[in-house]
Design goal:
Helix content is 45%, strand content 16%. It is of the alpha/beta class. The chain is globular.
Length: 354
């Protein structure tokens, strides 16, 4: 009798522990990112977020465990995402480098998990504009959505031309307002992503130049980050999430998948497929979709931190080295048999060893 009671007590104790463990698992993984759609359906534009969220890749991964994935697309771009992070309303985010830097510098305890590199920025100008190069912007009225990654790229391009924002009349407008103002000829230029190319497609402006014309180090960097608290509590979930992202990067880095991706992203985002072909045409897709935390990524964030301080967007700098958490990407790459698939890139975006 005593043995039976003792066994029952052990069973109840183990059951309680298991119940507690399962109860500790999050019911929902909350992911936030800026909304870059041009239609009624929120999306990540022509980027990898549209592919992952639209295909419900994470939902499929976690459904078997009863774990939900909740995506929130913020019209307020990076600043709105950071505010939600600060309020602990999100667990994982996809952000451009400047918004991520501002959040970290202001005390948001995040870790950088997976980089996404090389997104282009474009300068749209009125059809009758004489602007052909960055130097021609001196004294011009130009808009950029401040606090987003595009501001960093603009300032980097200006510095290369011997200019700064003080040499221009820089106006802070969101993407929709900037497009409308340029179309109405109230501006001399609009520095943005594919939203700028949309104006050219409509015959309302022309693209004078792009960040890619200046070199890969002038393109926009972004990536997936997570709260340190979430990583510490659920490293297994973070690993599975990162592995899904790396699988997606592998698929999108293969040229025979590119057209299908562009068409899918166009349908989800409302952005014309022709703009996707503009963005990815002629690109080294292995560079664009490499998940490796290499010299290009690390130095790009380091320079971004210095720029943010110079622009008075942050009060103090920080060492980007400890910010990165490469163990999840490294394990995903190894488990998927991709260790020799992607090269590592130097500061200028050239493959190391070539």
């Amino acid at each position: 009798m005593f043995c039976a009671l003792r066994l029952s007590a052990v069973v109840l104790f183990v059951g309680a522990l298991l119940s507690s463990a399962f109860a500790a698992e999050p019911v929902t993984i909350r992911i936030g990112t800026p909304d870059q759609s041009a239609g009624p359906t929120p999306s990540g534009g022509m980027g990898i977020v549209t592919y992952i969220a639209g295909k419900q890749l994470l939902e499929q991964e976690f459904a078997k465990d009863g774990i939900k994935v909740e995506w929130t697309f913020f019209k307020g771009a990076g600043p709105a995402v950071n505010e939600a992070l600060a309020n602990k309303q999100l667990d994982v985010v996809y952000l451009g480098d400047l918004a991520a830097i501002i959040g970290r510098a202001n005390g948001l305890a995040t870790r950088f998990l997976v980089p996404v590199r090389g997104n282009n920025a474009y300068l749209a100008v009125p059809l009758d504009s004489d602007v052909k190069k960055v130097e021609d912007l001196k004294g011009k009225r130009v808009t950029v959505f401040k606090g987003t990654a595009y501001q960093l790229v603009l300032d980097r391009a200006l510095a290369k031309a011997g200019l700064s924002e003080r040499d221009l009349q820089v106006v802070n407008l969101d993407w929709s307002a900037a497009s409308a103002a340029l179309a109405a000829k109230q501006l001399d230029g609009n520095w943005a992503g594919l939203q700028a190319v949309t104006l050219q497609e409509k015959g309302l402006a022309r693209i004078a130049l792009s960040a890619r014309d200046l070199g890969r180090e002038f393109t926009v960097q972004s990536g997936f980050l997570a709260r340190e608290e979430f990583i510490a509590a659920h490293p297994d979930l973070v690993q599975r999430l990162v592995t899904v992202v790396v699988k997606a990067q592998r698929d999108l880095s293969q040229s025979d998948h590119l057209e299908d991706f562009i068409i899918f992203a166009s349908q989800r985002s409302g952005i014309p497929a022709s703009l996707g072909r503009t963005e990815y045409g002629g690109e080294d897709l292995k560079f664009r979709f490499s998940p490796l935390i290499d010299e290009f990524v690390i130095d790009g964030l380091r320079v971004g931190v210095e720029q943010a301080k110079e622009l008075n967007l942050v009060r103090k700098t920080f060492d980007v080295g400890p910010w990165f958490e490469p163990r999840f990407v490294d394990k995903a790459v190894e488990d998927l048999g991709l260790k020799s698939y992607w090269p590592r890139y130097d500061k200028s975006g050239q493959p190391l060893g070539q």
